Amino acid sequence: MNVRIDDVDRKILGELQRDASQSLDEIAARIGSSKTPVWNRIRKLRDAGVIRQQTVLLDAEVLGFEACFFVLIRTSAHEAEWQAAFLRALRDRPEVQEAHRLAGDIDYILKVRVKNARAYDVFYQALISEVRVHNVTALLSMEEIKSTTMLPL
Fold this sequence. Notes:
Helix content is about 40%, strand content about 20%. It has five helices and four strands, in the order H-H-H-E-H-E-E-H-E. A hairpin with a 6-residue loop joins strand 2 and strand 3. Keywords: DNA-binding, Transcription, Transcription regulation.
């Protein structure tokens, strides 16, 4: 579905990205509108798939998930059956926060959040027991410098 996004829509989306728990009144006041038009625009943006979901961002470290690994995967298997099994294995693992198929020497990159290195090894052993991979490189993030879900509207 094609949807036109104007400056008011961008302001609303910016406010929702900043804090989706705001009331309609708060959003309307911040963008210089009234409640009903803001509600109608948000509904339109949801119906069009621009707004996929609203959620809460949790602090991983406060909850004990102190290790973030970026996992580079190379595979020699590119058949549909292998790919389906691989994607299923990733979707079944809550440790995988992001997964991307890449162009270039590396086939996939995963962002994996776990409590510690031992927990990463448990994840790794489970993954390679389900799908065959040619090469896996795990890079431990020493410091998160920037992390955002906000798009530059």
